[in-house]
Amino acid sequence: MKKLLLLTTALTILSGSPAIIAQVQNEGLANLIIAARQKNAALMKQYSWNCRSELSENGTPKDTRIDTVTWGPDGQPQHTLLNDQGNPLPRGFLRRRVAEKEREEMETYLKSLRSFLHQYTLPTAGQVINLISSATIPAPGPDGALQITGASVVVPGDTVALTINAPTRQTRRMTIMTFFKGDEVTVTVTFKTLASGLNYAAYIQVNVPDKNLTLLIQNYDYVNQNN
Fold first, then answer.
1. CA–CA separation, 96 and 92 (whole Å)
2. Considering the entire predicted model, what is its pTM?
3. Element at 34 (helix H, strand E)
4. In which element (H, E) is residue 150 found?
5. Residue 104 to residues 1, 2, 11, 57, 98: CA-CA distances in angstroms?
6. In this structure, are residues 158 and 177 in contact, taking their beta carbons and an 8 Å threshold?
7. How far is residue 96's CA from residue 120's CA, in Å, rounded to a whole number?
8. Whose CB has fewer CB within 10 Å in the chain, the N or C terminal residue?
9. Is residue 10 within 8 Å of 117, Cβ to Cβ?
10. pLDDT in tens, 43-91
C-alpha cells in the first residue's frame, strides 16, 4: 500500500544523511560524527537492499510490503515493489466507502508523520550541531559506546538518544520520543555495520499508542552494485 511507502522512505536511510563540517560546542566530536555520516552517505549510494514494512493497528497487521531499494539518478532512494499484502476492503457500498475514507485518512496521517520524522534523521549540519551542542555526553563505556542524549531537538519536550561507536563515530542505536499532532510517537532504531564499513538502520519500530499503530521496518540483503 502507498501509505507504508510514504513513511518508510524517510526512515530507511537514517545513517546516510550528509552534512557540512561544524564549528560549535563539542566541535571535535560534532565534526567527527558529521564526517562519518558524509563517508557513510557516499558508501550507501553504492548499495541496493530489500526493505520489509509491516503496519499494524490494534495489534493486527493491516499492510505488509517488501520493496527493493536502489538509488535513482536524482540521488534519492527508489522503491520497487516485490510483494504487497494489504487487507481487502469490506463488501457492501456503505461499509466499503467508510473503509476507503478511513484508508485515505490513514495515508494522509502517515504522509505527514513521515515528513515530521524526517527531521530526526538529522539531515543537515545544523541539526547535528543542535543535538551535539545541547546533549549530555558522558565518557565512553568500556565497550566503546558513547551515549548522546538531547532534549527538545525538534519540538519542545522531545528526547533523542544516540549510542555511537566511539572509535568509528558510527551509530549503533537511536531512540526518539516526540509528539505529533498531539500524539506521542516513539521510534527505536537498531543499526548494523557491514564488513565494508556501511552503517545502516537494520530494524526500525515506530509506535503511535494514541492511534494503536505500530510500524516495523527491516532493511536487509545489502548488495554493492559496484562489485
1. 6
2. 0.83
3. helix 27-44
4. strand 145-151
5. 11, 10, 21, 15, 10
6. yes
7. 36
8. C
9. yes
10. 999 999 999 999 998 998 888 889 999 998 888 888 898 877 655 544 5
Q: What is the DSSP-derived secondary structure letter of residue 155?
A: S
Residue 178's identity, in one-letter code, is: T
Sites in the chain below the pLDDT cut of 70: 1-26, 85-103
**Quick check: 153 and 160 in contact, CB under 8 A?**
yes
What does DSSP assign to residue 209?
G
Cα 115 to Cα 4, 69, 121, 171: the distances in Å are: 13, 19, 11, 22
3-state secondary structure of 57: strand
Largest CA distance in the chain: 63
Query: What 3-state class would DSSP assign to 103?
Result: helix
Strand order in the sheet with 60-71: 77-86, 60-71, 47-57, 213-224, 199-208, 183-193, 171-180, 159-165, 145-151
- Give residue for cell 541496493: 48
Beta pairing, strands 77-86 & 171-180? unpaired
Tens-place pLDDT, residues 34-54: 889 889 999 999 999 999 999
- How far does Cα 109 stand from its chain's mean position? 17
CA dihedral 6, 77, 61, 57 (to 10 degrees): -30
